[in-house]
Design brief:
Number of strands: 17
Distance between the termini: 32 Å
Strand order of the largest sheet: 1-2-3-4
Oligomer: single chain
Helix content: 25-40%
Radius of gyration: 22 Å
Length: about 325
Amino acid sequence: MLSRRWAFLPVLAGLAMPAAAQPGCTAPAGPLQAVICADAGLREADRRLRALEARHAGLTSRPATARARAQAWQSALEAGREGQALDRAELLDEYEARMAELAEMVRQDRAMRALATEVPEGTPPGLLPRPSMIERRCLGGALSGCRVVATGLALSEDGRTRILWQQQRGHTEADGVTGGLVLLAQARGGWRLLGWSFEGDRFEAPRLIPAEGALLLHAPGRGGRSGARNADLIYRLGPRGWEEIEHESWKDSLPAQLPAGLGVWQAVDYDLSAPAAFGRLWRQEDANCCPTGGGAWFDLRIEGQSLRLAGVTLDTLARLRLGEGGR
């Protein structure tokens, strides 16, 4: 039986006016639209959220990831919790948490975009001179107490494409101690700010990889303190220049592709020359630290600006576990 708080949504949804009749309502079409549009507090929260999403989309170097995360958040909001719709207080909590996350991303994005305002007079628009202090001074002001961990230059096999990179270490009020990676692509007359992330506890040196008839830039990264989640950066060089490839949404297809009782709970290792990934498999009774279900190779393909799952191959241990009753 639902609590009195849970009972709010069906009643409100039944009384709600059509979304089109709610002036200024920004809630997207879906099961929550009428509920949100009929409530002044939820309507205002949704308006603020959509404004932050638009601001982030206009500043980020990872637009594909921003879109995928916005869609995933909306889907989770609509799915509720344990089969139950969220009540008004819970919806507002979810909105506030999401807006805090977006506000921090916007702050970081603005700090990095400000680099373009610090260039010497005469520098071509949109370009930066090669940073002379890149080994000692952090690019941008996204991290407090920032120090440079490592710098380097990634070269394509033919030597015509060059990526300058800087690894950082510092802290933010939102996340505490964290790592950062800034990427600059060489262009005629200078260097163009290509991408950045401050979501990884650690990053590896970026690599330029020929794959699927294009040139990919891959910077492996791990986040979640224990390295439990992927923080990789992936870009592809195409006719319009470098475009980000998001690598989060393909994992939504895993439950339908893996045998029942097996799952990928933590980070995977990418091999973008294939492209493919390898991940450990957890059984339902496993602890987070210790997967016992074997492993699997995931065949991937690039579709638009996303990685997509094309197939799954279980290793010997995973097949053995299934034979033991892993289902």
